[in-house]
Amino acid sequence: MPPAEMARDLLRELKMPSLAMLLARSSRSAHQVFDGFSRALPHEYWLTRQFDSDNSPALATSAMRSFNLPAETGVWFILQPVHLHISRDHLVLTDTRQLQLAESDARALFDIVQPLFEEIGKTLVYGDAQTWFMRADDWHALRTSTSDAACGHNIDIWMPKGPRERDWRRLQNEIQMHWHAHAINEQRETRGLKPINSVWLSGGAEAEKTSEANTKFEEAFIFLNERNSFTALTKKQIPITSSADIFDAKPQHGLLVLDNLIGPALAGDWSEWLMCFQSMEERWFAPLLQALQDGRLDKLAITISHNTVYSTFAISKSSLRKFWCKPALARLAS
Questions:
Q1: 230: nearest Cα among 221, 222, 220, 242
Q2: N or C terminus of the chain: which is more exposed, having fewer CB within 10 Å?
């Protein structure tokens, strides 16, 4: 969803008749408003159904399973190598999508700090360049925030809070000192890339506990057009490049996550946001509308969100007969 103050101008630029038809002839089945200081973005809460939690969704152990990493016991957190930059009198978290962190650099940075974790009795495990995992059983009460929720803001508000938060900050400071002015970061800066100068903690989860909501997601198919953090929600993944791949798979239930608007929105790059959004019309919304019309799809729910709101709109073949509802994108601003 576009920000309210820019919605009218942005929506005027979009020519998306299929999405306009789907939204106009749908019924809103869910709507929730969050405050601007939530520890996860609305769609992150929606995907995990953890609306009553003042914490980042407990995804660490699910994420580890998606990397085929064992997590039988203990409390695990997701740890991301990040870049913090100074803005006036506070530190701001940069969107990790902008970092272009190579596997070789990430591995080297990981190896540099792994002994710090061993010294304090914590286990550090490598997933990929952007996703590491830490076991810290005695830090189970820490309230953390997702990196997307904190991105672009004063990090003080979104830093881990609760018992042992000083222990976490002490470890974070040690990591920052070990990476400061390291040859890897110097080489990154010569290539015009931001240095990796800190880590971000989120997603704390007890290995012995799997929420009912996550179990339901793991039993369903999830369709992704590109790898993102929500692969953690399921063991069953089908790579797709077009809507035809969805219908060919013939799932009873499917979830398509279109996440390529997140980066431009967090960066405030509304020109890129418009181009990415417009590209979804032909690739996704027109085929989905056609599938409803010809009976290949029984029903469709579209969930849209921005940083404080999410809404879900339900559409079926019969609801498309509401000829009195003129196609419009207005619900993207509602």
A1: 222
A2: C
- State the DSSP string of 42-70: HHHHHHHT-TT-SS----HHHHHHHTT--
Own/partner long-range contacts of 50-56 (Cβ < 8 Å, ≥24 apart): 50/211, 50/213, 54/143, 55/143, 55/144, 55/204, 56/144, 56/145, 56/146, 56/149, 56/202, 56/203, 56/204
- The rounded distance, in Å, linking the Cα atoms of 40 and 47 is 11
What are the residues whose beta carbons fall under 8 Å from the beta carbon of 328, sequence distance 6 or more?
Answer: 20, 23, 24
| pLDDT at residue 247, as a whole number | 79
Instruction: Say what the pTM is.
Output: 0.88
Q: What percent of the chain has a predicted confidence (pLDDT) above 90?
A: 64
Tell me the domain boundaries of the chain.
Answer: 4-50+211-333, 60-206
Q: Are 120 and 170 in contact (CB under 8 A)?
A: no
How far apart CA 242 and CA 223 sit, in angstroms, is 10
C-alpha–C-alpha distance, residues 124 and 117, integer Å: 7
User: Is 12:274 a contact under the CB 8 Å cutoff?
Assistant: no
Write out the DSSP string of 153-166: SBGGGTS-BSTTHH
